[in-house]
């Protein structure tokens, strides 16, 4: 099934619950979608679940929309793009997601990327 209208979207997963991802997850939940969060830092997932009702998840097989909010810069150099995290998620989603799921990337890009 391919998503052709918003009414078909039931479950949304926000991957990365940091400065960008947590507000996105809260917004999605406020709009009435069943909202899940995933992060490599367990305390961020616990915070989202405890304080905002964003459910934790380990398996990606029943998600309609994936919103990727992961870092795209090297931790030691904010000007150097680091895309391994995005590529790793893309591989995992391609293996686990159901056909027709929508994937969007909301990650910020490092300073100077578009120069």
Label this structure with key terms.
globular, single chain, Rossmann fold, 3 helices, 115 residues, five-stranded parallel β-sheet, alpha/beta
Can you offer a commentary on this structure?
The protein has one domain (about 10-105): NAD(P)-binding Rossmann-like Domain (Rossmann fold). The strands form two sheets. Strands 3-2-1-4-7 form a five-stranded parallel sheet, with helices on one face. It has a two-stranded antiparallel sheet with strand order 5-6. With about 120 residues, the chain is α/β, with parallel strands linked by helices. It has helices spanning about 20-30, 40-50, 85-95; strands spanning about 10-15, 35-40, 55, 65-70, 75, 75-80, 100-105.
Structural class based on helices, strands and sheet pairing: alpha/beta
Please identify, by name, the CATH architecture: 3-Layer(aba) Sandwich
Helix-strand string? EHEHEEEEHE
Strand order of the largest sheet: 3-2-1-4-7
Shape: globular
Report on the biggest sheet. 5 strands, parallel
Q: How many structural units, i.e. domains? A: 1
Task: Tell me the helix content.
Answer: 25-40%
Discrete helix count: 3
| Total number of strands | 7
CATH fourth-tier homologous superfamily: NAD(P)-binding Rossmann-like Domain
Which fold does the CATH topology refer to?
A: Rossmann fold
Give the termini separation: 39 Å
Radius of gyration equals: 14 Å
Poorly predicted runs = none
Q: Per DSSP, what share of the residues sits in E-state strands of 2 or more residues?
A: 15-25%
CATH hierarchy class name: Alpha Beta
Overall pLDDT score: 89
């Amino acid at each position: 099934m391919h998503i052709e209208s918003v009414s078909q979207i039931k479950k949304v997963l926000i991957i990365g619950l940091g400065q960008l991802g947590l507000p996105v997850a809260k917004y999605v939940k406020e709009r009435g979608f069943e909202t899940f969060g995933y992060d490599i830092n367990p305390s961020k997932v616990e915070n989202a679940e405890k304080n905002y009702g964003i459910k934790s998840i380990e398996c990606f097989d029943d998600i309609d929309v994936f919103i990727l909010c992961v870092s795209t810069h090297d931790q030691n150099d904010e000007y150097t793009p680091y895309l391994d995290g995005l590529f790793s998620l893309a591989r995992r989603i391609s293996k686990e997601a159901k056909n027709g799921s929508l994937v969007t990337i909301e990650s910020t890009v490092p300073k100077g990327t578009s120069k």
